Amino acid sequence: MTEIKQNNTTETKGFSLSGYLVASVILIASLLILFNLQGQAKSVKVLMFFSLVLINLCWAGFFMVQPKQGRVLTLFGAYVGTVREMGLRWTIPFFFRKNISLRIRNFESGRLKVNDNQGNPIEIATVVVWSVSDTAKAVFEVDDYESYVSIQSEAALRNMATSYPYDIYEEGEVALRSHPQLISDALTKEVQSRLEEAGVVVHEARISHLAYAQEIANAMLQRQQATAIIAAREKIVEGAVGMVDMALDQLSSKGIVELDEERKAAMVSNLLVVLCGDQNTQPIVNAGSLY
Predict the structure, then answer these.
(1) What is the pLDDT of residues 197-247, one digit of tens each?
(2) Who contacts 49 (Cβ-Cβ below 8 Å, separation ≥6)?
(3) What's the CA dihedral at 95, 99, 103, 107 to 10 degrees?
(4) How many domains does one find in the chain?
């Protein structure tokens, strides 16, 4: 089976001249022919007439290039270059000229429903900032480079979303929600690798929407709340133990009161209840004796 090889088209500079200069030359040449047309032999008049027609055909070679735009030139289907010089330009009238915008553009994907690497269904969307860097590739390597950008950006987003978990489940893990800059860099690299062949450069790609899918949103919300409660309790217990240790140490060092082990245990229990309780405690004052 014969392998078909395709040569990649790379942007080159197309032939063009200043339109103001060429317009001046055409006007001067036309006027000279008209002024010298009288008194010439018939054969010379015919030759000058055809010369005048050819000169006036050059008016078809004028075109305008706006800032941040390029004109792709083709001759009978063959690519002959790209003109990026701004202003009024002139080129060979037989060249077909296609306008390509070089301005920076935004593409926002729809909300895609995918599974993260833990198998949890999530909703995710992205915003891609891009521009055309190679006009020849954008025109000849893909059928419609704008549609190509949208489809490949969504494909890159799906692939990236399945490579990371929605949230951190293990220490040191990179997650979609907790590491936005790392995820943005990875997404930008993924999209750029897919759009390289279309002559498109990706300036930035960021996640614009991220959430659990509706069918598991409530369950995952309870899980997040439970995780937050556990983390808060750990901090509370850690602080309470430190305060109890400090209280016992100061009571002993300052000689305020001497407590045996049983009384220390009771005091520790009472302080932990006070410090770790969800509601305010109601103390019972013993006014009869020390214990």
Answers:
(1) 999 999 999 999 988 877 655 656 666 665 666 666 677 777 767 777 777
(2) 37
(3) -130
(4) 3
| pTM check: above 0.85 | no
Q: Are strands 105-108 and 69-75 parallel, antiparallel or unpaired?
A: unpaired
Q: Does residue 90 sit in the same domain as residue 143? A: no
Domain end residue (candidates: 36, 65, 100): 100
Tens-digit pLDDT profile for residues 66-84: 999 999 999 998 999 999 9
Domain residue limits at 25: 17-100
pLDDT digit string (tens) for 164-209?
Answer: 888 876 777 888 888 889 999 999 999 999 999 999 999 999 999 9
**Torsion sign (Cα): 177, 181, 187, 191:** positive
On whether both 112 and 205 belong to a single domain, the answer is: yes
Residue from 102, 101, 103, 97 nearest 81 by CA? 97
Helix ranges, the chain (H): 19-35, 42-57, 135-140, 145-161, 180-195, 214-253, 261-276
Q: Specify if 193 maps to a domain.
A: yes
Query: Is 248's pLDDT higher than 90?
Result: no
Q: Residue 71, class by beta-carbon neighbours within 10 Å (0-12 exposed, 13-18 middle, 19+ buried)?
A: buried
Angle, CA of 28, 34 and 39, to the nearest 5°: 135
DSSP state at residue 278: S
